Amino acid sequence: MPIASKPGSDRQERESNVRSCSAINSPAIRQVKMKKLIMVFSAFWIALAVAAHAQVAPIPMAVSNNAIAGGKVGKREGLYSFMGIGEKKTWDAITNHAYALDLTTGKWSELHPVPGPAGRIGASAIAARGQILLLGGYTVDAQGGEITVSDVSVYEPQGRKWYRGTDLPIPVHDAVVGVYRDRYLYVIGGSTKKDAVANVQMYDIAKNTWVSATPLPSTPVFGHAGGLVDDTIVYIDGAHRNPGAGPPFVASDECWAGKIDHKDITKIQWTNLPQHPGTAHFRIAAGAAEKEHKIYFTGGSETPYDFNGIGYDGHPAEPSPVTFAFDVKSGGWQTVNDDTPDPVMDLRSLLVTREGLVLAGGMEKGQRVSAEVRVIHRK
Questions:
Q1: C-alpha dihedral over 229, 231, 237, 241, to 10 degrees?
Q2: Which ranges in the chain belong to alpha helices (H)?
Q3: pLDDT tens by residue, 318-367
Q4: What's residue 145's pLDDT?
Q5: How many other CB atoms are there within 10 angstroms of residue 145's CB atom?
Q6: How far apart are CA 340 and CA 34, in angstroms?
Q7: N or C terminus: fewer CB in 10 A for the chain?
Q8: Beta partners for residue 377, in sequence order
Q9: pLDDT of residue 11
């Protein structure tokens, strides 16, 4: 798909950046030969080489609020980390760097930077149909101004190239994403420049088109966590604007499951869930396990906070040590570990593997930005 030309220097710069990666059409609308390229997104098991490599190399740079996804090219499996914020936790520490971890060797390599505007935080990444889709997020300028981005960037691991997808109709950051039938990408809630939105946006990856789905059933939130397993979306918590006095944003403790209608996949039947284990409510890492019919959650903070780890109430946020899961088949919560070692917050997602739940980067206690790759073993 040719990249559409629109007025404005930012758009022209983004177009130039994308063209520098490749001039061919978007793989979002072309066929992928699955014998040559097999991508397994984070809802599926990925065999992590932790058993052979007791120490997985850290990310080349410490980074938090990065978007991660996992995939497989031929026989080589990988974990991908895109963008995020560095150790200074200031506007100029936000990066557009991208890295791939080869899970057979335990080593990282640097990829071509993410195309588009200057580095972003709050973006989402997920793999499907032989590609990794990276969307949304926001930029921060020297004056603290934030701009939510509508860009959809498509990365093809086999050719190590970036392509451009159709922009998000409603630009969002800090959203929940999930893929249904390895074709339909659901973007659930998130925040625009002004406030959180209740919209559920659905992207047909094969046709490169967007439509609207049934919106969120309750107060719009951002910084929530969740995923999609089988035909069910689950999202929990997040933050919303404070209707009263005090900090501008406060935590939500609501949990919801949405069942996708098989005949009309834009229709979602939402059901309220009981509260989950633990007390964290904001930027909990989540990842789907298709074979187990579960979505796993870990870390996060009780306190909604800004990109520097300081709560909107002025107090430093700290990570929760609780790891838990929602079983879609039983409809219940399970505690995996209520005292997870070295907990982190400020992650977009986690990767479910045979060895455990894999986290890359994030903020440790004391709001320290980490480069570590952690594996949480399930009991």
A1: 130
A2: 9-21
A3: 999 999 999 999 999 999 999 999 999 999 899 998 889 999 999 999 99
A4: 93
A5: 11
A6: 38
A7: C
A8: none
A9: 40
Q: Token pair 């904001």 is at which residue? A: 282
- Residue with tokens 């599926």, as numbered in its chain: 44
Q: What is the DSSP string of 221-262?
A: -BS-EEEEETTEEEEE--EEE-SSSSSSEEE---EEEEEEPS
CB neighbour list of residue 188: distance below 8 Å, 6 or more residues apart: 175, 176, 177, 178, 200, 216, 224, 226, 233, 235
In whole angstroms, give the CA distance from residue 273 to residue 101. 36
Tell me the two tokens of residue 68.
Answer: 């991660």
Helix, strand, coil in percent for the chain, rounding step 5? 5, 40, 55
CB-CB contact of 178 with 191 (8 Å)? no
List Cα–Cα distances, 176 to 73, 98, 122, 190, 284, in angstroms: 25, 21, 10, 7, 11
Residue 337, amino acid: N
What are the backbone angles phi and psi of residue 18, rounded to the nearest 5°? -65, -45
Report if pTM > 0.85.
yes
CATH number assigned to the domain covering 9-23+31-376: 2.120.10.80
- Biggest CA–CA distance in the chain, Å, is 58
pLDDT in the model for residue 355: 86
Token reading at 11: 């758009």
Task: For the chain, list residues with pLDDT below 50.
Answer: 1-25, 27-54
**Each residue's pLDDT tens digit, 286-323:** 999 999 999 999 999 999 999 999 999 999 999 999 99
What is the rounded CA–CA span in Å between residue 310 and residue 318? Answer: 9
Shortest CA distance to 83 belongs to which of 10, 143, 135?
Answer: 135
The H-or-E segment that residue 9 falls in is helix 9-21
